[in-house]
Amino acid sequence: MEEGFSAHQLSPSSWNRYEDCPRKYWLSRQRLPRKASMPAAMGTAVHNSVEDLCNLDISDREDSEDGWLPPTSKAVLDRHWALERDIFLGTPRHPRWKDEMITKAHDGLVGALNILFSKANIGKVGLSEVTVGQWKQVQDIVLANEGTLVSECGRLMGRLDLLIADLDENGESKGWIVADLKTGNPPKLKLNEKVSRQLRFYRDLLIQINPDHPQVHAEGWYSSNQTVHRADGPSVLDDAFAAWDGMRPSEEPLEATPGEVQCGFCEWKAWCPVWWSARRDGILSPGSMFRDEVVRAIKFDPESGAALFERMPPVGVDGELAHSDHRFGAILRDQALDQMRELMDSGYEEAIFLGSVRVDGKIVHLGDWCEVLPWTPLLKSVRE
Ligand code: SF4
């Protein structure tokens, strides 16, 4: 690894963030309080369950035994579900934990196992019919799972879900498949550019560090409808190195590129002044049903959760705010109410960021889906 170059590494997710908006990437590196997400927690529970099942030691079991996979996979998933719930609830910023989503996680796990059966030439089979012998067959094609790939120079890294043997119809391996398990929405026709690039990134990294590799291709496995999408195309490593160069740690914030898509799901808005001025300038629309606001509290009743807010329009582009005549009422409940109470109890009197309020006529509603955070535009790196 080159001396002095290990300070930052590009991974597919940090690359995407950087490409979405360099400021979003920069903020994500400032050790600000993280936000947990339910889809991510579900995805991790499914990934880790697949990994555990692939690593399961069944060497001393009879090959003919069946009926074992449904209870085993349920126990494995239950364990990971509980672990993810603890991590989720321990993350400083988190919405409501939706325990009912375990059903979706279970379906995702079954979907992933079905793809593995087809890759091991077992074909369609009900989970309860799968024998220990058949599962050993699956384990045989798994060459690696959850491996970390790092480029020779140390600048690029990625976590590979599964590396499996690409079997022909006679069960002979004709190469490797780099597989990434996806628990999100499957593509309608073909993989979107970002997912394709991520898959090719794993492929290209694997090729770079395994000079004697056989034929390799990358696939996205969508567990929800059990479809497999192959990512073909030229190497992405040159582009990755170019992006890595722009992602160097810096004292000054990186450029912000506000837009509906990137700002829509950005978790760093309370620390970014740019989206708020972009809204003033008409670059971003205010949103109809759900919107973000920067306000100060005029009145707040901690008992009932009723509040009156004053919108604070931006002055300039660095997060400075002005007063305005625009006032609106709000009803706060659940998590939003707890956060507001905490903020008010601490004596906070400055501006507040309201994330994702639901507009209902002249008043807005805040609940578990919202965030109430101090407005803290960050204009210098807090990393030492
Ligand atoms: S809110 Fe928008 S402009 Fe600001 S960091 Fe996030 S994506 Fe970039």
Describe this structure in words.
The protein is α+β, with helices and mostly antiparallel strands and 384 residues long. It has 2 domains: 12-241, Lambda Exonuclease, Chain A (Alpha-Beta Complex), CATH 3.90.320; 260-374, OB fold (Dihydrolipoamide Acetyltransferase, E2P), CATH 2.40.50. It is 35% helix and 22% strand. The protein contains 11 helices and 13 strands. It has a 5-stranded mixed beta sheet, with helices on both faces. It has a 5-stranded mixed barrel with strand order 6-7-10-12-11. α1 (12-20) packs across α2. The radius of gyration is 24 Å and the shape is globular. It starts with 11 loop residues before the first helix and ends in a 10-residue tail after the last strand. Mean pLDDT is 94; it is low at 1-6. The structure holds iron/sulfur cluster.
Average pLDDT across residues? Answer: 94
The distinct ligands, each listed once, are:
iron/sulfur cluster
Distance separating the two termini: 23 Å
* Total tally of structural domains: 2
What is the H/E string? HHHHHHEEEHEEHHHEEEEEHEEE
CATH topology description of the largest domain: Lambda Exonuclease, Chain A
Return the CATH class of the largest domain: Alpha Beta
Question: How much of the polypeptide forms β-strand, as a percent range?
Answer: 15-25%
Physical arrangement of strands within the biggest beta sheet: 1-2-3-4-5
Overall spatial form = globular
Radius of gyration: 24 Å
Can you tell me the CATH architecture of the largest domain?
A: Alpha-Beta Complex
Q: Helix coverage percent of residues?
A: 25-40%
Largest sheet: 5 strands, mixed
